[in-house]
């Protein structure tokens, strides 16, 4: 059962989630990019790039680990926001809110598990195993983890529909729609789809959490 939460506490949780996810996006752009299968100029991966990624990850472990640890923090902060919203709206949706937290917690487990593979397994693998682990990790974090976060967020948006302004609801559904796009791209292993959906999702989500935090603070 989600604890009761004040609007002020939920506002803080929204700002924390915005900050950590913004930091995560920055680390993906400036720290992790050389080890990812798609660069931020939108170029698709080719076979010749795999060996370069593999060598970079193996020789930059501290940077690689640092980048993924920031994503640990981003994921945990997202769950914290969900806990706050569930506590805020559980009176209106006593079943939906706890269920959303179960879904989000499952997403966190999948997400952190994938990132652990990236951090602890990927740097020591040979070329074929490296490629397989990349695919496995992207499915767990991009499809399963992100997909469960998206479902949980949609459930909480429904739970708070009596209170959320229509503009914030519309913005939220845009975020969840982009989340569905990312999950579909990850499941189909579309490098370009994952790049484009992530590039659209992260700033949209960060802006939404900032606006949500501001609205909650004014209540």
What are the salient characteristics of this protein?
single chain; 219 residues; mainly alpha; 7 helices; 80% helix
Q: What's the quaternary structure here?
A: single chain
How far apart the termini lie comes to: 24 Å
State the secondary-structure class: mainly alpha
Order of helices and strands: HHHHHHH
- Which ranges are low-confidence, i.e. pLDDT below 50, for 5 or more consecutive residues? 40-48
Share of helical residues: over 70%
Strand content: under 5%
Main beta sheet: none
**What Rg is obtained from the alpha carbons, in whole angstroms?**
18 Å
The tally of helices reads 7
Summed over residues and divided by their number, the pLDDT gives a mean of: 92
Q: Write down the domain tally.
A: 1
Shape descriptor reads elongated
Q: Tally of extended strands? A: 0
């Amino acid at each position: 059962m989600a604890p009761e939460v004040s609007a002020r506490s939920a506002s803080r949780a929204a700002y924390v989630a915005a900050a950590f996810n913004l930091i995560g996006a920055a680390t993906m752009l400036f720290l992790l990019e050389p080890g990812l299968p798609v660069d931020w100029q939108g170029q698709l991966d080719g076979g010749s790039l795999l060996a370069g990624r593999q060598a970079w990850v193996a020789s930059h472990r501290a940077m690689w680990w640092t980048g993924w640890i920031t994503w640990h923090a981003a994921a945990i902060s997202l769950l914290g926001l969900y806990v706050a919203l569930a506590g805020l709206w559980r009176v209106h949706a006593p079943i939906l809110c706890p269920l959303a937290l179960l879904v989000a917690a499952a997403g966190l487990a999948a997400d952190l598990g994938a990132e652990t593979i990236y951090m602890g397994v990927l740097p020591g693998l040979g070329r074929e195993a490296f490629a397989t682990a990349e695919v496995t990790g992207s499915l767990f974090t991009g499809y399963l983890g992100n997909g469960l976060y998206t479902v949980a967020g949609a459930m909480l948006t429904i739970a708070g529909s009596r209170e959320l302004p229509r503009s914030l609801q519309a913005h939220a559904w845009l975020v969840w729609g982009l989340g569905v796009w990312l999950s579909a791209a990850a499941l189909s292993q579309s490098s370009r789809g994952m790049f484009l959906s992530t590039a659209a999702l992260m700033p949209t989500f960060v802006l939404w959490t900032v606006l949500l935090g501001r609205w909650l603070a004014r209540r």
